[in-house]
Design brief:
heterodimer; A: alpha/beta; six-stranded mixed beta sheet; 12 helices; B: mainly alpha; MetI-like fold; 10 helices; elongated
Chain lengths: 262, 211
């Protein structure tokens, strides 16, 4: 076991699912009783097919959904005891479609949460500039632009900058790089990895991309049909006998064999 | 006597009637926006209210205007003043496009934008005022434009209950079989509608969010 994950074992638990389940009003179950802990500084990747329940799990953390059974705890308090707006401002949230406000400039978009938190305009502005540089965009060029003037990759960078604006200790990302072309995707993913190391946030990422899970995750949670099949280090994941994990790993091996032949 | 002569001779009278007309329309629009926009938000937020609200507004639209004005004349408080009952009747007609377009505008906000707003910790109220309404403004204005043009037209009928306005000339001209008199009401009313339509379409284009 590496020094990194050993350190993690001692770090405090930031997010915890205790028998948390979620079902729709019509009784259809989207997530059945899962148990999971995420420690400070960890990057947990929830890997699974579309419709497996990954996004539902993510929304339970920032209380966009309330669990129908069990509880989800953030910083040792059940989400249902948090004021939902405080909780959400405490957690950065990045979604695939970015959801940038089309009538706001990049600066205004990044400043949404700081302004809600009552930061003065000047401080919000310099923070926005700082975050743009951090995510690889020139603030002088991009602060005054509108989302429709940006490429997909630039929009996603702004989305990440916006989520980081009020310096939340937790970051939730739902297929953050899913809508990008493969090259841009690899590029942004790489930059994000560097950012991740620098910022030391507690991050939960949802993806259906095995590569992404292995590259970004310090731990991988496998979600299938509303159940958590297990959590693995990237290393364990590749060697797991669990059939679903093995299927993902096998699919990667096919890829690397193909590379070997060419 | 040529039409131009007529207009210049009765200029002050026509101006007076035009001012009355504009006042009726402006009061109607303020009232119908004040009622229609909140109702539109309600329709967008509570889909089950959409049938009853839009349905009622639709029914109001189908009542012949002369009949509605006549009916309001018999209603106690309302019928006491001609301008009061006219504004009430005109407001009923103006509501439908305003309610409908407000609801359409809000429904047209991308779900991802709304989800991001919620995810960042904006309250429902903040989402409405900072995201949904600003993004719906041009659609709402399109409804207000239709309602304004409609109101300018229907307001000419208000002269039948003594509310004044440009309809005065039209009714008088009809009674006296005097075409010039009819045109003295009809031409300014038509111009008013065109100008309002043009100005509001400019505003609508300016406020349309870029995509």
């Amino acid at each position: 076991m590496s020094a990194h994950s050993e350190a993690n074992l001692q770090a405090e638990v930031i997010i915890e699912f205790r028998n948390a389940a979620y079902q729709l009003a019509n009784g259809q179950s989207l997530l059945s009783r899962i148990n999971l802990t995420v420690r400070r500084g960890e990057t947990l990747v929830l890997l699974g097919r579309s419709g497996a329940g990954k996004t539902t799990a993510l929304k339970l953390i920032n209380r966009l959904l309330d669990p129908s059974e069990g509880e989800v705890r953030v910083e040792d308090r059940p989400t249902t005891e948090w004021n939902p707006f405080d909780l959400r401002r405490h957690i950065g949230y990045v979604i695939q479609e970015t959801g940038l406000f089309p009538h706001y400039t990049v600066e205004q978009n990044i400043s949404v949460v700081p302004r809600l938190e009552g930061w003065p305009r000047e401080r919000a502005r310099s923070r926005a500039a700082e975050l743009l540089s951090l995510t690889g965009l020139d603030p002088n060029l991009f602060l005054p632009r509108y989302p429709h003037e940006l490429s997909g990759g630039q929009r996603q960078r702004v989305g990440v900058a916006r989520a980081l604006a009020a310096d939340p200790p937790i970051l939730l990302m739902d297929e953050p790089f899913g809508a990008l072309d493969p090259l841009t995707r690899a590029e942004i993913r790489g930059e994000f990895q560097a950012l991740q190391r620098r910022l030391g946030k507690t991050i939960v990422i949802v993806t259906h991309d095995t590569n992404e899970a292995l590259l970004l995750g310090t731990r991988i949670g496998l979600v299938e049909a509303g159940e958590l099949k297990g959590t693995y280090s990237p290393h364990e994941f590749m060697r797991s006998n669990e059939p679903v994990a093995a299927a993902y790993a096998a699919q990667l091996r096919v890829l690397s064999e193909f590379e070997g032949e060419s | 006597m040529s039409l131009m002569d007529f207009f210049s001779r009765h200029g002050s009278e026509i101006l007076q009637a035009t001012i009355e007309h504009v006042w009726l329309v402006a009061a109607t629009m303020l009232l119908s926006i004040a009622i229609g926009v909140p109702l539109g938000v309600l329709v967008a937020r509570r889909p089950w209210l959409s049938k009853p609200i839009l349905g009622s507004a639709n029914v109001a639209e189908t009542i012949p205007s002369l009949a509605l004005l006549g009916f309001f004349l018999t209603v106690p408080w309302l019928g006491a003043r001609a301008d009061r009952l006219t504004i009430a009747a005109l407001t009923l007609y103006a509501l439908l496009p305003i309610i409908r377009n407000t609801a359409t505008g809000i429904a047209g906000v991308e779900p991802a934008v709304r989800e991001a707003a919620r995810g960042m910790g904006m309250t429902e109220r903040q989402i409405l005022f900072h995201v949904e309404l600003p993004l719906s403004v041009s659609t709402m204005l399109a409804g207000i434009r239709v309602a304004t043009v409609l109101t300018i037209g229907i307001a000419t009928i208000a002269a039948a209950v003594g509310a004044g306005g440009l309809g005065e000339f039209i009714f008088r001209g009809l009674a006296m079989v005097n075409n010039q008199l009819i045109l003295a009401g009809a031409v300014p009313a038509a111009l008013l509608a065109l100008v309002a339509d043009f100005l509001l379409s400019l505003l609508e284009r300016r406020l349309r969010p870029a995509r």
